[in-house]
Every structure is written in C-alpha cells, then in structure tokens.
Design a protein that fits this description.
Layout (H helix, E strand, L loop, with lengths): L1 H25 L4 H18 L2 H17 L3 H17 L3 H17 L3 H18 L2 H17 L3 H17 L3 H17 L3 H12 L7 H18 L2 H18 L2 H17 L3 H69 L4 H56 L1 H15 L5 H33 L7 E4 H11 L1 H7 L2 E4 L6 E4 L1 H18 L5 E8 L3 E8 L6 H9 L19 H11 L3 E7 L3 E10 L1
Parallel strand pairs: 2-4
Antiparallel strand pairs: 1-3, 3-7, 4-5, 5-7, 6-7
Length: 610
C-alpha cells in the first residue's frame, strides 16, 4: 500500500514537470497553449500540496505573461512565487524571481535598477553553480548594458553567455547570445560580423523559436539595408515581419515594419513605405499606451511589495520581542518558585508583563491598520484598471466612424474621382466632422487626466457670450443637418471668472447635448441672468424633456453615465455631463436642470462674476 502511494506521488511530480516542459515549448509561439499546460500543472501541484512545485508553476505563469508584454501580471506572479520560495528557503527560486523583476524593470527603461536585481540573482546562481541561470542573467545584464550605451561591457557579457550556453548545450540561450552580439556589431558598424552572427542563428542545428527567428531576420534586413542590398533587405524584412506577427510580439512587429518602410522608401515605392510606416506607428502607439498604464500598475505593485516587506519585518520584531518576553517570564517564574524571598520582584515583573502585552496589542492594531491600507491600495489599483479599460473602449467606439470617413475621402481623392466642386463640399464637411471628433477626443483626454492626474484651474477674465458663439459655430454640420436655429441674447459682452479651457468644454458639452435632443426644425434659446455672486447662462431645447428620476441621476452621479440616443439616433460617450459637473466644481460653479417632460429641457450653468 505504501509503495503504491509513493509511486503515485512520483508520477504526479513527473506530471507537473512534464506540463511545465510542454508549456515552455509553446511559450514563444502559442500563449494560450502554454497557459493550458500551466493550468494542468497547477492543479496537480496543489493536490500534492508541494509548495516548491506550486511556486515553480506561478513563476512560469509570470514568464509567459512577460513574453506577451503583460508586465503587471507577470510581476504579480514573480512576487507571489518569491514569497513561497522564501518560506521554503529555495535560493534558486528567489534568484529566478529577482531576474524576473529585473526583466520587467528593463522593459520600462529602468536599466540601472534592473542591473541591481540581475547582479543579485547571478551572485546566488554562481554560489549554487547553476549554469543555466548564470547564462540567463549574463544575457539580461548585457541587454541592460546595451540600453545604457555600455557597449564594451555588454559585448563581454554576451561573449561569456555564448561560451557557457554552448558548453551547456543550450541552443535557445546560445541563439539569443548570437543575436545580441550581432546587434552590438551593428551598432559599431561591423556589418560583416553582424550578418555572420544573425546567419548562425538561422542555420543553427536546432531551429530557433519564432521570437529569436524574427529578431535575426529583421536584423539581417537592417544590415543589408545599410549595405545597400535592397533585394536581400526586403526578403529578410518580410520574413521577419511574418514571424513576429505569428508570435504576436508587438515590439518586433514595430521594429520590422519600420525597417521595411525604410527599404521601400529607398526604392521609391512610397505607397508600400507608407503602409508599413502606418503599421509601425500603430504598434508603437499601442506599446506606448500600454506601457504608461502598465507602468502605473507596476509602481503600485512595487509599493505594495515594499509595504508587505515592512509589515513582515515589523511582525518578526514583534514576534522576537514576544519570544524574549516568554523566556524572561519563565526564568522569573522559576526563580519565584525556588526563592520565595523574591516576591517583590515577582510582583514588579507581573506589572511589567501587563505593560508588555499592551504594547504588543498596540503593535497588532498597527499591523491590522496597515493591512487595511494595503486593501485600499488594491481597490485603487482595480479602479485604475477599470479607468484604463473605459478609455480604450471609448476611443475604439467613438473614433472609428470619423476615422473611416477620413480614409474613404483620402481614397476617393487619390483616385481622382471627385470634381473640384465635390472636393470643396466634401472637405468642408470633413473639416466639421474632424472638429467634432476633436471635441470628443478632448473630452476623453480631459476626463482621463482629471481621473488620473487631477486638473489645474487657472482663473481669468472670460467673455462668456464669445465662447457661446464659438461653440455654436463648431457644431455647424450638426445644426445644418437637423435644421436647428439658435436664439442667442448677445447684445452686450458678458464677463465671468473661470478657467477658459474648462469653460469651453462645459459650454460645448451643454450645447452639444441641446442639439442632440432638439427635434428637427426646432430652435434652442440661450439667455443670461445674474444674482449677487453668479452669472447664469440658460440653454433650453424643446425636445422630449427629462423625468425627475433622470434629473436626479444626472445631479447625483460621479461616474460615466450610460449615453442615450438623440432625436436623430445620435450616440455619445457618456462623458460629457461628467466633465461638465466635474469642471463646474473646479471653477466654483453650479448646475441646475429644469425640465417639462415631453416639452423642453433647460440647463442653467452658474459661473462666478468677474
């Protein structure tokens, strides 16, 4: 019976190692398949309750998320794995996690901090004589040295990593080393050596993974471009681009697209050059946007890790004090039993013991308070992720139609299918649409900034009726389309004290809202009133009006509303009224809504008098 249990345990451990091995095979080519095997490995490891195996699975999750660029999730897994390895005194596991943290810091350009983690990791690996991770650390050290323009030091690191990886018969590491050596030679303009090392990667006895293959192919394309051999350059460039697309490596796709664009430009094939330049820009913009949001997530996670370490240190100190107190109590208690003459000292000790326990209770409350702070930070991090998702959702939904229109007009113009009169008319309309799109984009960006960074308000003297007229003009296309007219009481110039940029956004959104819900062939009334403190602008449309529940929802909300369709089925982002309310608070203004359901809606905006 015992023999069967042992045999089952060994098989289970072998299963975990098998799944980890299969996952690594797919890490660079098929993330979902790699993740599939890791989930299987995790299930078996948890059944075995083997903490080191569980940590190995978590670490491999981190590595797979790092490969596809999800650095924030990768860091979460490295931190979690490091905690388990530390509890199990697994030094090589800690070294791997230090290397993982360094890779993420490297990904955000923090190479000096990354080098510190790599050097800590390689020190542990050298002490344990773990050749595999010595090589990986040497590669990472060389990459950071390259990023810091320390090319001679980087060359030495890559040479050492190549020598050790060949000795260890690790094709993956030797191919990466040769790719990096080729890059150093390219930087130093040694093109023949560059081509030599990249070719060695491609003709290696073991086929390189798609990531290394894409890097080598694009590198050869870049080298032949510099040599002026455009045919070879384009052949290698397109192969590198296709390999990068298969592995979904955004950085490699952007790199290869930029090289191909330069080649086509040299061949005067400007249409193809522009096509790949657009691809380069799309991926670079995507990488930049993701890096900024992920960088915020990384900083939050690092802060959380530092706070956890402080809490652990404090808990250890408290535990040590408690242990010392117990030893002291035992010693005194023994003396009191043996020597009754020390009753006074015993009484004194009892008083001290109560004081010690009170101090420990206070420290425990401090620890609980700090844990609550960590929970609040996690909630804030989740809200930040939700804000990111809102921004991308809004951008993809609300900018798709105008961008498509712009592309269609450019295509028509390229094909010379438009007369001069048609061009004049279409470009006038296109200008209005682009201006409208600019308003949407400004709303989104201003909202995002106000959510993440806060907003600075600069009070100044503003001619309010001039802002009104500019805003009405910016909606020329919508006004013409719905045949809406404005009755604007603008006989004299009216001045307020507010931030001009935020005032424009407030007015533009209220007027846009009025046009959106105004019926066809109707009008919108605009007039002014005032009291001792405020100057009020009244903007009234004669649409279906709002019920009291909707008014209360608008006045009480503090997040994005669900946008309702206008009288001509217009759609919005749901951010306009959020910006109005937020910016009015910034400018010490007020918002009132008066509505007669089925007849009209009047927005009353109060600004400080100048």
């Amino acid at each position: 019976m015992l023999q069967n249990k042992v045999y089952g345990s060994v098989i289970s451990r072998d299963s975990v190692n098998y799944y980890l091995k299969e996952s690594k095979k797919n890490s660079y080519s098929d993330f979902n398949k790699a993740k599939f095997y890791l989930v299987k490995a995790e299930r078996v490891a948890k059944k075995l309750n083997d903490k080191n195996l569980i940590a190995d699975v978590i670490y491999n999750f981190g590595s797979n998320y790092y490969i596809i660029g999800s650095y924030d999730i990768a860091l979460q897994n490295y931190i979690k794995a490091a905690e388990i390895y530390d509890s199990e005194n697994n030094k090589i596991g800690l070294a791997k996690c230090l290397m993982g943290k360094g890779l993420i810091q490297q990904g955000f350009g923090r190479d000096k901090e990354a080098l510190k983690n790599f050097k800590k990791s390689i020190t542990i690996c050298r002490a344990l004589n773990d050749k595999k991770f010595i090589v990986k650390n040497l590669l990472n050290i060389g990459i950071s040295q390259t990023n810091l323009n320390e090319y001679d030091e980087a060359y030495k690191s890559f040479q050492e990593s190549l020598k050790l990886s060949v000795k260890n018969k690790s094709s993956e590491d030797s191919q990466m080393s040769m790719n990096k050596l080729a890059n150093i030679h390219y930087i130093k303009n040694n093109l023949d050596s560059t081509i030599y090392y990249y070719q060695k990667v491609l003709i290696d006895n073991v086929k390189p993974n798609l990531w290394e293959e894409a890097y080598a192919l694009s590198g050869l394309s870049e080298a032949y471009l510099k040599k002026g051999d455009y045919q070879k350059a384009i052949n290698y460039g397109l192969r590198g681009y296709n390999s990068a697309k298969i592995v979904r490596a955004k950085w490699d796709i952007a790199r290869s697209a930029e090289i191909i664009s330069k080649i086509y430009s040299q061949q005067n094939n400007f249409e193809s050059a522009y096509h790949f330049l657009r691809i380069n820009k799309i991926y670079n913009d995507s990488l930049y946007a993701e890096s900024k949001i992920k960088e915020v997530n990384i900083l939050q996670l690092e802060a959380k890790e530092a706070e956890n370490e402080r809490l652990i240190a404090k808990a250890e100190i408290a535990q040590q004090k408690l242990n010392n107190t117990r030893i002291f109590v035992g010693f005194i208690f023994f003396l009191l039993i043996a020597l009754l003459v020390f009753i006074y000292q015993y009484y004194k000790y009892t008083s001290q013991k109560g004081k010690f326990f009170k101090e420990i209770e206070i420290k425990n409350r401090d620890i609980q308070s700090q844990q609550s702070m960590i929970t609040a930070q996690n909630i804030a991090l989740e809200e930040l992720n939700q804000t990111k998702n809102k921004i991308f959702s809004i951008l993809s939904h609300d900018l798709k139609t105008p961008i498509n229109s712009l592309i269609q007009v450019i295509e028509l113009n390229k094909q010379n299918d438009l007369t001069k009169e048609e061009q004049t008319f279409i470009f006038d309309q296109l200008q209005k649409q682009v201006e409208g799109t600019s308003l949407i984009l400004n709303n989104i960006l201003n909202w995002a900034n106000s959510q993440i960074d806060g907003t600075t308000v600069h009070f100044e003297k503003i001619a309010l009726n001039q802002i009104i007229e500019e805003s009405i003009s910016s909606f020329y296309a919508e006004v013409i389309k719905k045949k809406v007219s404005f009755n604007h009481d603008k006989e004299e110039t009216i001045f307020i004290k507010a931030d001009i940029g935020q005032t424009r956004i407030i007015i533009q959104n209220i007027i846009a809202n009025a046009i959106k819900f105004a019926p066809l062939n109707s009008h919108i009334d605009i007039h002014y009133t005032s009291d001792d403190k405020f100057l009020k602008i009244h903007i009234k449309d004669y649409g279906n009006g709002l019920n009291q529940n909707k008014i209360e929802e608008i006045m009480n909300f503090n997040k994005r509303l669900v946008s309702e369709k206008g009288t001509s089925m217009e759609e919005g982002t749901g951010l306009g009224l959020l910006l109005v309310k937020q910016f009015l608070i910034n400018n010490k203004g007020q918002l009132e809504i008066q509505s007669v359901e089925g007849k009209s809606t009047e927005f009353i905006i109060s600004f400080l008098k100048y």
